[in-house]
Design goal:
Distance between the termini: 21 Å
Structural class: alpha+beta
Shape: globular
Strand content: 15-25%
Number of strands: 21
Length: about 550
């Protein structure tokens, strides 16, 4: 009997597949080749951590529209009866400031160029995970990614669509010479690749090989670091060799809320996982018996609004927050915020506790180890900067900083910004149920809440929990729903004051993965995202 007594059936509105079962190991990702890379490492004797690293590195090659070598990463690792958290986000350059950015002619932090670039954390995260928990050498673990980068791979349909969208945007917006290397790397035929077309990058392969050979030292304190710093300096960027040399991933204590007897875990701030936890903390005071009810959806949306309002106002690097995580997640504050939810849609504002939103992967092995891992460049390809001769596409995480000097997340040198990427993990009675995640900017905590409630409140199996139609709060009373969302419920939500829009693009609603484990038999059961090219590799 599984810890979760879920229904072994398809969700009625889903264009879906069945859940996957396995005994020896499982890797769930949004890209088939990446899943197979992780499975290959498991079969070579690697553990779930090795498989997760191999898969993550491979995703920088086979899904560059969502992540890259120049991005950040976060991980939750269940190892030997304990859950560990690793924050692999980077800091802003030491020399950047609000005044400096304004002197460059900006009133808001731009999306593209060197200004929003923060220190990339992904390669250091791979190396740190490998050093602490891996069984195989990093050189062996990165081999599949290096091979795909050097020899090329056939582009999948969803990837091609997202690539074309990015290319069209960049073609009109990235006109400065410093962006030329992005087009040389990702549009060598002066267009995005078509489905089934082979794309490769020898520069990318050589960079991954260097990271593998030096355990990421070359990226932060060697040749690759020098190339990044030199290109930054040549184009008026703030990122320096010193910024890169100072980088170190941070082991953190995961945070949780107890939701109906299950502990739902996230990485603590600066990540936005606290948004999902706060929403669940509000929702646990209600009794939900019917998933397909306007009351259920209304309360979910209202709780999500309140959590986002709080966290957009209060969350940044944890040591700099005005309120602690414990205060934001306290039962008393959850009750206070819950009492604001009425029968009509509200426009949320932040509360005061003291007075009372990428690629995601999940991996598991036959030793009981499980990994929830996420990495991203942000906004697709990130900053539009590719460092010449490296294939390194740099993230634009600094875009999330505020230019208001009084804001808790105000731009400052050497600071971590409020971060969208969040891995999730579920336990019950100090035993692992498994990793879960939904990627996609500020959709991520909204996806976490919906998937958790689908699982715990409504008993849906992993695949059905992911396939169920989703909603996404945008701002104020604006809510988007998928085209498969029941229309009579959308109309009822509109009657409650929600401004409902039916959105046709499924990838706007996140892309998730789940792996649960039976505590008695050790059998793994997984679900993968039907909104993209998701797949589960298992044995």
């Amino acid at each position: 009997m599984f810890v979760l007594s879920f229904q072994h059936q398809f969700y009625p509105y889903a264009n879906t597949r069945s859940e996957t079962y396995a005994k020896n190991g499982m890797v769930a990702t949004s890209q088939p080749l990446a899943s197979q890379a992780g499975l290959t490492i498991l079969k070579k004797g690697g553990n779930a951590v090795d498989a997760a690293i191999a898969t993550a590195a491979c995703l920088t090659v086979v899904e560059p529209t969502s992540n890259g070598i120049g991005g950040d990463a976060f991980a939750l690792v269940w190892m030997k009866g304990e859950l560990h958290g690793l924050n692999g986000s980077g800091r802003s350059p030491r020399s950047i400031s609000i005044d400096a950015v304004k002197a460059d002619g900006y009133e808001e932090i731009p999306k593209y160029g060197w200004t929003p670039v923060t220190v990339p954390g992904a390669p250091g995260t791979w190396a740190e995970l490998s050093e602490r928990f891996g069984k195989l050498p990093l050189k062996e673990v990165l081999e599949p990614a290096i091979t795909y980068a050097a020899e090329g791979f056939p582009v999948t349909p969803t990837l091609s669509k997202l690539w074309k969208k990015a290319y069209n945007t960049f073609q009109s917006e990235l006109t400065d010479d410093m962006f030329a290397h992005w087009f040389e790397t990702f549009a060598p035929r002066n267009r995005a690749p078509e489905p089934g077309e082979i794309w490769s990058s020898l520069d990318h392969a050589e960079t991954l090989q260097s990271i593998a050979d030096t355990k990421a030292e070359s990226f932060y304190r060697g040749e690759l670091a020098e190339k990044m710093a030199d290109y930054s300096r040549a184009n008026g960027g703030y990122l320096s060799l010193e910024d890169l040399a100072e980088y170190q991933p941070e082991w953190v204590k995961p945070i949780k809320v107890n939701y109906r007897g299950y502990d739902v875990w996230e990485i603590p701030p600066n990540g936005q996982g606290i948004v999902a936890l706060q929403a669940l903390n509000i929702l646990k005071g209600f009794n939900f018996t019917d998933k397909e009810s306007v009351d259920t959806y209304h309360k979910q949306i209202e709780a999500m609004k309140l959590a986002f309002a709080d966290c957009s106002e209060h969350v940044t690097e944890e040591s700099l927050m005005n309120y602690t995580t414990d205060e934001l997640l306290s039962d008393a504050y959850g009750t206070m915020r819950r009492n604001l939810i009425g029968d009509e849609a509200l426009i949320p504002t932040a509360g005061e506790p003291a007075l009372s939103g990428t690629v995601y992967l999940a991996a598991a092995d036959n030793e009981g180890n499980m990994v929830s891992f996420i990495q991203s460049n942000y906004m697709g390809f990130g900053s539009g900067i590719v460092v010449p001769g490296t294939g390194i596409a740099l993230q634009n995480r600094g875009h999330n900083f505020s230019m208001d000097p009084e804001h808790v997340n105000a731009l400052k040198g050497g600071k971590k910004t409020y971060h969208t990427i969040i891995p999730g993990f579920l336990t019950k009675g100090n035993q692992p149920v498994g990793p879960f995640g939904v990627m996609g900017g500020f959709m991520q905590p909204q996806g976490h809440v919906q998937v958790m409630m689908n699982t715990i409140d409504f008993g849906l199996n992993p695949q059905a929990a992911l396939d169920a139609p989703r909603w996404q709060w945008i701002k104020d009373r604006n809510v988007e729903v998928e085209h498969r969302f029941p229309h009579h419920l959308a109309a009822s939500l509109a009657e409650k004051g929600h401004d409902i829009k039916i959105a046709l693009e499924p990838t706007n609603f996140g892309r998730g993965q789940i792996i649960w484990k039976d505590p008695d038999s050790g059998v793994l059961v997984g679900g993968t995202e039907s909104r993209t090219d998701g797949t589960i590799a298992a044995w």
